[in-house]
From TrEMBL, chains A, B:
Name assigned to this protein: PaaI family thioesterase
SUPFAM superfamilies in the cross-refs: Thioesterase/thiol ester dehydrase-isomerase
Enzyme class: hydrolase
GO terms, molecular function: hydrolase activity
Record's keyword annotation contains Hydrolase: yes
Ranges that cross the membrane: none
InterPro entries to which the protein is assigned, alphabetical: HotDog_dom_sf (IPR029069), THEM4/THEM5_acyl-CoA_thioest (IPR052365)
Key words of the record: Cytoplasm, Fatty acid metabolism, Hydrolase, Lipid metabolism
Statement: the UniProt record of this protein carries the keyword Hydrolase: yes
Protein's organism: Nocardioides vastitatis
EC number of the protein: 3.1.2.-
Gene3D superfamilies registered for this protein in UniProt: Hotdog Thioesterase (3.10.129.10)
């Protein structure tokens, strides 16, 4: 959650973005299904080897033309953020479960999602590090939604009990903030209640702090959509 | 890092395990390459749709026979642990970079690894939650290697600076322990030094604590390989 002001604004029309999502979402879901099938399959070795050869073929075709920079580098700052490569929410990232996040401008984020076999740590449970991955993202979403985006400064996870694989819910919200830091909390909820709690400190990116300093010095700082600090 | 005593010991001979690794490692690497190609490809839409259709075909073939339980549930406790589904180190998990971990019985773990575009959070940087995922695993490896396995109780990450995508190193070690808890620390090192630090508290699993209580009560508790507590 760190909009960078150096990228040019994304001028892509809504319909074009919707069309691109319509292309990438099912493709990425197919790769995600392949990841899941990979950790669960019990077919015989010949079938595994045949699948491998076909996958290698597909990879070499997909690699014929590649982006000159990562998806994150083409990240758009101005109300049109497209974090498609994000490993938690990215519509183009097969590693992402993906979480579909609902946010509120009060600084709140929530998501109902599913964690399958590829996210397993202890038997039948979500890997503790995956729990922290999801919570870091969700706390970041909450502070971003609240108009106080930032890089994670510190993150603390308290594991109350194992988080079972399956359908889960994550909630995050802003607790408080000072000029530069925002404190957020969140938790993951399984079928039997809260399994893990998080607290994070997020630090406003330097370009935001520079604009704040410029505004304080009386300079005319134009508002940035979604960034309530200058409103 | 939580060996469960309920699974039967893995009787598979070494050569058979090596053969299975020889099958799964290149297959999983092909899927991992596909994940990477998915977030980086710039081929045209027809090619994406064609690849999707072929991937869906492969998935349905792999799903014809599936394991009756997740890989974690078939996890082996007795010195023959096979965490093949683990999302950080699993030889059968395409989500895992994967980390190849060297451990020392003093309670130390280290790994040199690569994080590509699929792990990106802020532009050009590893997602902060991925940083915590890797550190959680590595701290768990350190306490396990030190003969004090455990479930993560709390995990705190301090982000010193962004962790650049690319070649990285992670180190973790046991700091101290009391009867039930083990404190571990670790960090990730990029080309310019430490980027993030972690501290975690790991709690001995219940079955270990029960054996400890039994031993304290004078019962004859047989040693468990790799678990130095009863030696």
């Amino acid at each position: 959650m760190d909009p960078f002001p150096t990228s040019p604004p994304d001028q892509t029309p809504e319909e074009e973005i919707a069309r691109e999502v319509g292309l990438w979402r099912p493709f990425t879901q197919a790769v995600r299904d392949l990841v899941d099938a990979s950790v669960l399959t019990a077919v015989d070795e010949d079938e595994i080897r045949a699948a491998q050869a076909e996958i290698e073929q597909i990879v070499s075709r997909l690699r014929k033309e590649q982006l000159s920079e990562t998806l994150g580098m083409t990240h758009r700052p101005n109300g049109r953020r497209r974090p498609w490569g994000n490993p938690v929410i990215g519509v183009r990232n097969p590693i992402a479960p993906p979480l579909v996040v609902r946010t509120e401008a009060t600084g709140r984020a929530e998501s109902d999602f599913h964690c399958g076999a590829a996210y397993e740590g202890p038997p039948g449970l979500v890997h503790g590090g995956v729990v922290s991955l999801l919570l870091d993202q969700m706390l970041g979403q909450a502070v971003g939604a609240g108009g106080r985006p930032g890089m994670t400064g510190t993150l603390t996870i308290v594991y109350r009990t194992g988080t079972p694989l399956g359908d889960l819910r994550c909630e995050a919200w802003i607790e408080r903030h000072d000029e530069v830091k925002t404190w957020a909390k969140g938790h993951i909820i399984g079928p039997d209640g809260v399994t893990a709690e998080a607290e994070g400190v997020f630090i406003l990116p330097r370009w935001v702090r520079e604009r704040m300093a410029a505004a304080a010095a009386g300079e005319d700082v134009p508002p940035v959509p979604g960034l309530r600090i200058f409103e």
